[in-house]
Amino acid sequence: MSVGVVVFPGSNCDRDVRWALEGCLGMPTRFLWHEERDLGGIEAVVLPGGFSYGDYLRCGAIARFAPVLQAVREFAAKGGPVLGICNGFQVLTEMGLLPGALTRNRDLHFLCQPVELVVSNPSSRWLKGYGHGETITLPIAHGEGRFQLAAPDLERLEQEGQVVLRYAANPNGSVGDVAGLTNAAGNVLGLMPHPERACDPRTGGIDGRRLLAAALG
Amino acid sequence: MPLFKARVLVSLRPSVLDPAGEATRAAARRLGVDGVQRLRIGKAIEVDLDAPDRAEALARLELLGDRLLANPVIENWSVELAELAGGVEP
After folding, report:
1. Which residues of chain A are at the B interface, by a Cβ-Cβ cutoff of 8 Å?
2. What residues of B are in contact with residue A93 (Cβ under 8 Å)?
3. How many interface pairs between A and B have CB atoms less than 8 angstroms apart?
4. Which end of chain A, N or C, is more open, meaning fewer C-beta atoms within 10 Å of its C-beta?
């Protein structure tokens, strides 16, 4: 039983995720190289942040064709939990596992700061450790985090409870203040904030712990 | 096999905010160029393609545009296609 952490050329949060899962939460992990196809023994998958394939063309557009993601797609289709953080979220939208797209921040700046987030669906498998309306603080670090989706589609996601985390003060212009959303089945979560950077009190808080712990739910 | 020279134009859908375009429009004003009402930034992707005929070339470009070069959630795209006789530049 372990959590697979995907490593693309250009990933840079893969080791942070391993440190958070193993060092802070005591959860075993295994790195999954982008060319790997065997997810044997893996009970959850994390697509970490970074700049996969240099973010050429669009963020996540090239990563989508990585062999490991064919296996992740099948894993997700069978209900396996998949968490995409930052660049991982961008990859999930490019793959079509999550709706919408992530575009250049409204003010064009790369944003690297703690943000307040409101838990808007604590019945999600990923957020059951949190209360409805609870405010948590996680860091963001992205240049292209403005979530974009047509208004009627966003309304449908909100009605279905797929928007699970919102920005308390929208930093990047995302429609609907979306900071994190799940697929219809609820097993795939994409997040712009970095829960793995909020797991040790010495580095600014532990609000990310319950979320990461939910991977092995 | 004929060589086709294509240019795929990718543009943001009208409903999508283009902050880089807006910043460039503001710079145009600072340069002293008045009257720029709208400025949107896209991409032009040049593709040289060997294909048996024009229809097949277009079919391949269609797949490329729709599945790789553009993200239909936020972008529109179009293609301009020219055939080069014997691979010579027109």
Report:
1. 57-58, 61, 93-94, 99-101, 103-108, 146, 148-150, 173
2. 73
3. 33
4. N
Q: Determine what percent of chain B falls in helix, strand and coil, rounding each to the nearest 5.
A: 35, 30, 35
Give the global pTM: 0.91
The ipTM (two decimal places) reads 0.79
Helix H segments across A57-213? 67-77, 87-95, 151-159, 209-213
Give every residue of chain B whose pLDDT is below 50, as ranges: 88-90
Residue pLDDT, tens place only, A129-174:
899 999 999 999 999 999 999 999 999 999 999 999 999 999 999 9
Contact B43, B88 (CB under 8 A): no
Catalytic site includes residue A24? no
Domains and CATH numbers, chain B: 3-85 (3.30.1280.10)
A144 is an active site residue: no
Count of H-run helices and E-run strands, chain A: 5, 11
Q: How many residues does chain B have?
A: 90
DSSP H helix total and E strand total for chain B? 2, 3
Please count the structural domains in chain A. 1
How many whole angstroms from its chain centre is CA A95? 14
* Contact between A82 and A97 (Cβ < 8 Å): yes
SS3 call for B27: helix
Q: Report the residue of chain B nearest A94, measured CA to CA.
A: B71
Q: What's A61's domain CATH number? A: 3.40.50.880
